[in-house]
Structures are given as C-alpha cells and as structure tokens.
Amino acid sequence: MDLVTLQGWLDNAAFAILFGTMLVYWISVAFPRITFLPAFGTMGMVVANLAIAALLTARWIEGGYFPLSNLYESLFFVTWGITAVHLIAERMSQSSLVGTVTAPVAMGITAFAALSLPDTMQVSEPLVPALKSNWLMMHVSVMLLSYAALMVGSLMAIAFLVVTRGQAVELRGSSVGTGGFRDVKLRRNGVAVDTLSTTPELATATAGGETRNTAVLEKVAVQPTATSTLIPQRLTLADTLDNISYRIIGLGFPLLTIGIISGAVWANEAWGSYWSWDPKETWALITWLVFAAYLHARITKGWQGRRPAILAASGFLVVWVCYLGVNILGKGLHSYGWFF
C-alpha cells in the first residue's frame, strides 16, 4: 500500500470512527444506565486521534515537510488537537457529556476535509516560498493547537449554558478568582464576612476543644441563587463544566499568545514588518482580546457561571472566523494554500 492510498484510507477511517463515537456519546447520555458506553466513546476518540496522527505522519513522509501547508492538512491537525484536548477534559471531568459536544465538532471538521474539499486541495504540493521556513512548525502548529483548546473550552461553556438552561447559578467549584477560597467565608461572632485570605489571628481549636479567639474560619456551602431550580446532580455537573471550560481556556490562551508572537517574528523575516493588519492578524488579535477579557473577568472580577460562559461561548464563533472565516470572506497575506 503506497502512502497516497494509505492517506485516503486513514482520513475516511477517522471520519467513520468519529461518527460512530459521536453516536456512542449521544446514546450514553440518553441512556445513562448503559454504563459501558462512555468507555467505548473514549476508546473511539483515542483511535481517531491515532488515525489522524498516522495520516499526518504519512503526509510528512510523503511531502518531506511538516504537514501544515494547506487547508486539508490544517483541518486534520485541528481535529487531532480537539481529540487530544477532549481526552484531557474528559479525564478531568469524568463525564461523557464532554464527548457529546466535542465529538460532533471533530466529526464535522473531518467530514469537511475528507469528503467536501476537492481532490486538488487534498494532495501534497511543494511549499510556496513564504512557507519555506523553520517557523512553519513553530507558529502554525501552536496556533492550531490554541484554536483546538479554545474551541473545546468554548464548547464546555456552551454545554454549561445548556445544562443550567441559561439561569444564573452560584457554583461551589474552584474555577474563579483565587480558586479554593471561593466557598470560604470568615465568620466573626456569627456574622459572615467575605474574605479571600486567612490571617494568623484566626482562632484555632485546642486539644480540649477550646477556642482562643471569636474569629473562626469555616466552610460555608454556597447555595444556588433564588433564580435557580436545578437539581443537585445537574448543579454539580454545571460546576464541573464551568471548571473544565476555565481550565481548558487557560491552556489555550497562552498557546494563542505564543503563536501570535512567533507569527509576528516570522512576518518580520518574511515581509519586513511585525504587524501588517492583515485580516488573519486582526482576527487573531480580536480572538486574543475576547479570551483575555474572559480570563480577566474570571480571575480579577470574580465572575462565575452564566456571564463568563456567554463570553466564552461567543469565543467559539470568533475562533472559527479567525481560523477559517477570513480566508473565505477576504484575501490577505495568509491566503496562500487555502481558498485563494
């Protein structure tokens, strides 16, 4: 079997595996009593990840360069990133709900790349002069990995909004501000006082149960707001999704930052300017600002629940415009090897 035939087999296999995996995840959510289905879903994502890795490796061997030169290759690289980040998120959440939103996106991208793109856009071709640089692997791979992580984080935010039905709820997790102190309050003489830190003056109990000070630090369970009618299980799931979304976006944002900086350095080498306000550059900056605002709201302002979830969910559309939309809607310095 030659490499070209192998690639055609692998991309179709990746699509079929992801399609089946999507159905498994959906069935596991519809019928939660079938306890073995989530394990099959996880296995499907692992096999799809390996199939895509094999496909990209075969193209690397065939073309002699890192396979990120055209839309077909980049779509499969993004899908590989989504499946990899999915496995991280699923391990963190221990919930099959992650796969119900990530598997359809991964399957859709694979279907578009393998079944919709014309054959002329799927074959390996010699690199255009602007891409003959060591920065190809560094800049493009980091940017695409950041897109994958930010997409998964945004999908977790969308799942959170669906689970909570868009209601305003208070959560107990450690995904906001200083983390574990979110559900800690300081009580002095029976009066609750919000605090984010402890002091040496706080009382400690002696061996006989005697306290030395009236200031006592105690854990207070945060209850849902009056607008929330969620059952405890759904509230716990919402808390998990909120936490995973925050952590995955926290992974993707530094990658996006590194990718933008490396792209500026490469642009200076290739075109003599660090920043040209090319459509791709402009939307990369917009994407960075959206997720910077999300993290700022979470870490500094203490936002939690619905408001940051809406901001993160909007980031899903922004990432797609940055990644693919600007290549369809306009022509710029980044258009080579794509649609124009």
Descriptive notes:
- This protein is mostly helical and 340 residues long.
- The protein has 2 domains: 3-170 and 233-329, no CATH class; 180-219, no CATH class.
- Helix content is 62%, strand content 4%.
- The chain contains 8 helices and 3 strands.
- The protein has helices at residues 3-30, 37-63, 71-93, 97-116, 135-163, 232-271, 279-299, 306-329, and strands at residues 184-188, 191-194, 215-219.
- A 3-stranded antiparallel β-sheet has the order 2-1-3, with no helix packed on it.
- A hairpin with a 2-residue loop joins strand 1 and strand 2 (191-194).
- The longest helix is centred in the C-terminal third of the chain and has 40 residues, at 232-271.
- Mean pLDDT is 78; it is low at 176-228 and 336-340.
Write the layout of secondary structure elements.
Layout: H1 3-30, H2 37-63, H3 71-93, H4 97-116, H5 135-163, E1 184-188, E2 191-194, E3 215-219, H6 232-271, H7 279-299, H8 306-329
Antiparallel strand pairs: 1-2, 1-3
